[in-house]
Every structure is written in C-alpha cells, then in structure tokens.
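Slide 14.
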Amino acid sequence: MKKENKLLFVLLIIIIIFLSAIIIGIVAFKLNSWHYSSVAHDRFDQVIEMQKANIHHAKITYDDYDYFENGYVMEVYYDDDFDIRYRYIYERERDYVYVTAYLNNASLDLTDRKGKYDYFISVHFDEDGKISEVSKR
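Slide 15: predicted structure.
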C-alpha cells in the first residue's frame, strides 16, 4: 500500500507540473498577443496622424493578426474617401508599417483613381517608437 501511495503522489505531482506549464504557456501567449496588438495600434495611430487622416470618422473593417501577411493588419474606409480601402500592415521583426490602398479589390496604382491620403509608403520606427523614416514605394 505504501508503494502505491508514493506512485500516486509522484503521478499527481507530474500532472500538476504539466497543467501548470500549459496554463503558464497560455497566459504568456495571451500577454504577448496583447502587447503586439498594442504596439501595432500605437504605430498605426502615428502613421494615420502623419497622413493627417481622422480615424474617428472611419469604418474599420479588419483589425487582427494576419498569418498570411505575417503581421498585424488594419483595414480602414475613411468617410471622406469612402471608395478606397486603406490597408495598414505592421511587421514587428522590422518594426515598420506599410500602407497600401485598394479600389474594389484592385490596387490603386492599377486604377485611374487617386487617394486622398498617402499610400504605398513604408514607415520605419526607431527604438523609442517614433517615426524615423518614410519612404514611398
């Protein structure tokens, strides 16, 4: 009986350690996702401010991490430029945002329309999170 109690005790300890590791992993993943989202939104806000656009008068249609783009993506239709979909993509590895624009799922450079706000730009950030370089693509 004593040997069975020791075996059950060891098995219980192993199960507790395994469940603790799973819980810690889930919490760490959620905190990392939250931090990535908040950094991406901070970068998006700086780029939108640089474009002199008003995000409060806009319709955000997509705002999530996109595994295909390998970055955090936000798609916006501005009220004063409502036909054009602006797509902001933040890449954490390079710490930059690039902006594209679409009209009816066609890239704006393939149409004869011009957007009201800057598009096809890459915005790089420094270590302090401020805009360091803006390049037109």
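Speaker note: The mean pLDDT is 89.
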